[in-house]
Specification:
Pfam families: Sigma70_r2, Sigma70_r4. Keywords: DNA-binding, Sigma factor, Transcription, Transcription regulation. One of its GO terms (molecular function) is DNA binding. This is FliA/WhiG family RNA polymerase sigma factor. The protein is mainly alpha-helical. It folds into 2 domains: 73 residues, Orthogonal Bundle (Rna Polymerase Sigma Factor, Chain: A); 153 residues, Butyryl-CoA Dehydrogenase, subunit A, domain 3. Helix 3 crosses helix 4 and helix 11 packs across helix 14. The longest helix has 23 residues. The chain is globular, with a radius of gyration of 19 Å. The N and C termini lie far apart (42 Å).
Amino acid sequence: MYEVDYEQEIVKYLPFVRRVVNRIEIKSTDYDKDDLFNIGVIGLMDALKKFDVTKKVSFESYAYIRIRGAIIDEIRKTSRVSRTRMGHLDQFYKAKEKIEREKMTSATDKEICEELGIDGKQLSKIHETVHYLANISLEDTIFTSQGESLELKDVVEDTQMIPFDELLLDDEKKKALRTCVDKLSEREQIILNLYYVEELTLKEIAEVLEVSIPRVSQLHGKILIKLKNMIEEELA
């Protein structure tokens, strides 16, 4: 814990808490931004109490995990993706796996739509579901049955210091994720960079790419599905 005035530190980092809250784009009828901010402050207080200055990690990196973790834990208690949407996602993965097993190549959107008997609009909804799930738990979205904490920004960001949350991911998975991110198209890497490194909102990214906000969430979800598939192959 910092050897400084505790209350002053809380006040100092309140804007940081607000920034974290504004980055969490999860629709919930149970909480508004002020509610999430108050929960985030509790996470900040926890971070100030438990931060170990001997660790090779900045306080901001550590506090981000604690603040976001506190908010997400609270949201998880009341916010759930409907069984219908999760069912559609499960069907999507099964169809994708079936096509790729038969063809021995990556399944296209058209092939998946034909296999499931859906149109492009319905497929986009599935991509949006993945985007939503990634806001709740990115690691659970792109890693199969893995529970390590992970921030994608630490993989796409060029940095000399290994962030605290990346230390929680074993070397094999770090390498696999970096390798797969490097294989993405330039546009896909730009979207990940804008979202996870530059920390732009969906609205801001939409303005940069000159597309709609729903389209950004669909693209983000689609990229994560692609990453998930690539990582599974890399770690197989």
